[in-house]
Design brief:
- It contains 2 helices and no strands.
- By secondary structure, it is mostly helical.
- It is rod-shaped.
């Protein structure tokens, strides 16, 4: 039977365990780096998408406010013109003059 050198066998086993620990530590650090990098990339993409969506919402809001202002100007113009028509003398056989009928017809056709 051979003589087994337990001291050398223990040293090799310890060395193997140390190498295994070093490899696992390095692998864990690399995994953590990759995970962090991936998380940052997803977060960046999310922020970009959110910024694009917010820009689209802002543009739609501006367009709406512009259209609303234009409609209010048209409404004020109609009200002013109708007020002027009322100041014109009204005859019993004719309700509105020709310009009044034209303004009312335009208001009806714009709807």
């Amino acid at each position: 039977m051979k003589n087994i050198n337990y001291l050398a066998l223990g040293a090799w086993a310890l060395l193997a365990l140390m190498v295994l620990f070093a490899v696992l530590s390095y692998g864990s650090k690399q995994y953590q780096k990759g995970y962090s990098k991936g998380t940052e990339e997803v977060q960046r993409q999310y922020q970009e998408a959110l910024a694009k969506q917010q820009a689209a919402i802002n543009k739609a809001s501006q367009d709406y406010e512009k259209q609303k202002a234009e409609n209010e100007v048209k409404q004020d113009e109609r009200q002013t013109q109708v007020t002027k028509i009322v100041k014109v003398p009204v005859y019993t056989n004719v309700c509105l003059d020709a310009s009044g009928v034209r303004i009312i017809n335009e208001a009806i056709s714009s709807r």
